[in-house]
TrEMBL record:
Listed name of the protein: DNA polymerase I
Domain of life per record: Bacteria
GO MF annotation list: 3'-5' exonuclease activity; 5'-3' exonuclease activity; DNA binding; DNA-directed DNA polymerase activity
Domain 5'-3' exonuclease, residue spans: 3-267
UniProt entry keywords in alphabetical sequence: DNA damage, DNA repair, DNA replication, DNA-binding, DNA-directed DNA polymerase, Exonuclease, Hydrolase, Nuclease, Nucleotidyltransferase, Transferase
Family recorded in the similarity comment: Belongs to the DNA polymerase type-A family.
Domain DNA-directed DNA polymerase family A palm: 642-848
GO biological process: DNA-templated DNA replication; double-strand break repair
Name of the encoding gene: polA
Amino acid sequence: MTKKLLLIDGNSIAFKAFYALYTAMDKFTNPSGLHTSAIYGFNRMLDKVLADEKPTDVLVAFDAGKTTFRTKMYADYKGGRAKTPTELSEQFPFLKELINARGISTYELPDYEADDIIGTLAKKAEEAGDYQVVIVTGDRDLTQLTSDKTTVQVSKKGVTELETYTPKHVEEKLGVKPSQIIEIKGLKGDNSDNYPGVEKVGDKTAVRLVQQFGTIDNLYQNIDQVSGKKLKEHLIHDQAQAERAHTLATINRDAPVTVSLDQLKYQGDNIDKLTDFYERMGFKSFLAKLSVDDQDHADDQADIQYTVLSAKNAAELDQFTDEVTFHLEMSEENYHTSPLVGFAIGQGDKWYVTNDPELLHNQHVIDLLTSKTIKKNVFDAKRTYVGLYRQGIELANVDFDMLLVSYLLNTTNNSNDVGTVAHLHGFYNVKTDEEVYGKGAKRHIDPQSPAFLAHLVHKVKAIDALHDGMFKDLDAHNQSKLYWDIEIKIAFVLAHMEINGIKVDAATLEGMGSKFKERLAEIEQTIFQEAGEEFNIGSPKQLGKILFEKLRLPILKKTKTGYSTSVDVLEKLAPDAPIVQNVLDYRQISKLQSTYVDGLLKVIHPDDSKVHTRYLQTLTQTGRLSSVDPNLQNIPVRSEEGRLIRQAFIPSHPGWQIFSSDYSQIELRVLASITDDQNMQDAFKNGEDIHATTARRIFGLPSNEEVTPELRRQAKAVNFGIVYGISDFGLASNTGITRKQAHQFIERYFEEYPGVKKYTEDIVEFARNHRYVETIAHRRRYLPDINSKSFNLRSFAERTAMNTPIQGSAADIIKIAMINMADAIKDMKTRMLLQVHDELIFEVPDEELDTVKQLIPSVMDSAIHLNVPLKVESHWGKTWYDAK
DNA sequence: GAGATCAGCGCGT
DNA sequence: TTACGTGCTGATCTC
């Protein structure tokens, strides 16, 4: 029987894992302060490779130290590298402990790198005959070891994503044989290992030369045949360097390793040691997996038992009379337009699956899905509802929406993928779509493959398996009402809004577009004349060169890659040079053109001249919705030129009106209510202008009449700032006052609104104790950084603690209003079209206008009872533009 | 040369 | 060094 030897390049994988999780490093620490990111990433990689390869023998090789036979030969080898961060180096001893607990040996050899150990053992195994060898590394140089018996897997960006190299694959990708990789490296050198090859020879040239000559030796023997005079000169001049680079790049396959192949047997996890280790590292998900694996191994096989659904056996679906789990698979993200590729349905241990969406029209399937008594468990109710609705099937009685529940339990790390969410909740017997279908351009769904059907079954099984536990968690969070009364209901309200869509007049947009095009061409010419040369105005880099190098305008702000050219900078520079104002105009118009004219035209549906956005219900950290394809929550309104875009948004029937109602200052009203600040509440109860009142209070004026527009503007900035948890620095830069003044404003604000001051202190204290904050409806946001040692992270978490209950409660309120609204207008012709955070937009026939003028605001302002009144303002007109 | 990802920018509440 | 988002273009990296 053949054995399979897995050889892992410990250092390179640890490095990759560490840098893959670099930004999240502070989240990966155990209670004693040890960083654990590299250990975590390494273990994820191990899990994957052990599962995929099922090796019989395994070794992890490490570098022994800084000096090796290569540094003796060339002192600068790997010179100039930054010192390994202590956050990583402190992890190595524990990493080795992990590897041993997983039943795997580690090995290192003085004077040699891990590469050489791996090369040597791979060679021994190949010579022994009955081995297959798999090498896992982060370093593509090791692909020189591929052969018909040895494959090399190189980690891509993350650590768990591996690309497999066989000799064929190496040749396809690099254009040369594996053994010729060292010839390439000899010619071009290696920047990261800090040794040069031949000057002016890069990838392209090196490959060409190696394809022509095979080896460097042969190249120099036939140097006369090299085409290109300069190239030849460089080759001759750098011959010694090339030969040295060749040697440095060559993996030593005869290193004096002292372990033998028969010492490498893979022992499997030592559960006791591993449990102890995971506990010390704080690896909850791995701990969960340990226990799940224990239970699951038995039913791994039984697991993939399913029946392929057909017209013949569909009657068997009648056995489900109580509840059923259902998943509708679509090949694309946009469920309004995506093809349907299959579905799975079942419960308990009876699972049916098909790649034929036509079976949705089978009466037994329809009866099940539309039954008002049989409960349905799904992942993403809105998506499923819309997908079925397109087939004329109205999904009814959704019980468990795994996506939605997962989002409510924890808004961070949520995902639209069943597998990913399942893993998050400790269920591992399902793959992610990316694992099964691939990603990006390589993504491909093959509905004919058995893997496809199995994947769908695993998905429904995951949903079924997590149903009870996640509902319990929801209850433990006191979030069941949030789920049942708000989120699951709003999902269907949103579905209908999306399906209904809003009509967009393409001709209006096209008219605007051609005007913009002319105007852009004009301004462009002016700018080129002023600059004295042509360049790409849309490139901040090129623009920066022109403005700050050629024209020598003062550099007011920098970004991490160069000069800042953002509006606030350009506005300050505009008086200095006319070109700047032209750039600002150009920017404004090209934004309108690309994002709104061209962008919207692209997504108008040809059949109904409408756009059908998708509201993402499970994305934001605060409970707001977001909108995509197209985003209808950022249609211009502030500048008149931009606002004209709204003329293209029209009712879907002639003579109807676009009707818009928005909450006035909902966030400040929420603030007044939850802080229980009497002064702020009084202002709202008395119907005062809140910004004027704030100005009067903080500037100590006798009455609101004394407040000048400038003072009101400043007070408004403070009000906003408080909602966002601003600092004096931020307030100063925002309003153009000094930092000291800003500090005084904030002090005065807290004196006048003491309830607000107390709230900001209390909520941060709550967050420190509980690690989360909540909205009125018990929507929860975790703040893991609230006790961070990093000032920036901690400050951010503190601001979030103040803002999220405000912004999130406002989101709760409008969602409740929308649910009530859908019910209030259900027998009318009026349709609710859009939600823009504090605003609802409708289309209304003339005969209902008088009714909705009363009805809509009253539904909105009665959505919830606060300690202050909610105020709603309405506008209408023949287009969205005119609803002002 | 195409595709993926990052950076900068600007649109909304 | 003020919260939450989408999406465009260009630059850069990767294959």
